[in-house]
Amino acid sequence: MGESKEKTVLGVIERPEDKELFVNIKKMLETFKMGHTSIQIHSFILNDVEYPTEWGKFSQAKMELLSRYERIVDAHYEIKETEIKRDISLRDAATGLHLESKLLELEAEKLTLRLASLKAGLKILLREAGEFYSVYIKYPKFHDLTPQQEYDLEAEQWARKAANNPLVFEERYGEKFLEQAWGKDEYNKFKEYRKSKVGLLPREIITLKESPKPKATPLPICPTVGQLDDERRGK
After folding, report:
1. How far is it, in rounded angstroms, from Cα 50 to Cα 36?
2. The pTM is what?
3. End-to-end CA distance of the chain
4. How distant, in Å, are the alpha carbons of 51, 152, 159, 175 from that of 183?
5. Model confidence at 190: pLDDT above 90
């Protein structure tokens, strides 16, 4: 936050203790680091439960990189657009009437602050992108795979992820998926264990009978234009 902005805000704050509070908050924000830290990225976003395989972490890192790439591009154009708007406000302020110039100068000040915020956000995106890119380059063995190799690695990732949350996957996606992921024998072993230790799933308890189908109500037959004309004539 620049000195001009600080003076503007402090000018509308009346109590001295509130002005001091504002200055202290400003100093704190100058050293406050936004965005995900390295620990958050590697331990929580790319965690071992949801991404238990190297391929899983590699694939998710690519998705995260795509997201940050798109946001970096958007930030680039927003910064350029904001710079142009600020320069237009400064130009018009120099040639306008007194009160109009003051408003334009204020608008230029706001845009300048917006630029600082956008550039700070861009730094965060680039830092996060660097963390995810480090995961990408860590696994060069995944950079040039055949479609079949990718399929096999993804199948392993989902099988191991399901093993980390078997109750969730069984409840949400059904036994057919787990039979495909683990094999029928392995799933049946889990199913027997689950029934003995956890119990039945709601869908294993509830049996819905086929409800009687409602009788269709015949639609009224609309009279033709000719019949309406005959009624008007008293026929």
Report:
1. 18
2. 0.76
3. 88
4. 20, 14, 10, 10
5. yes
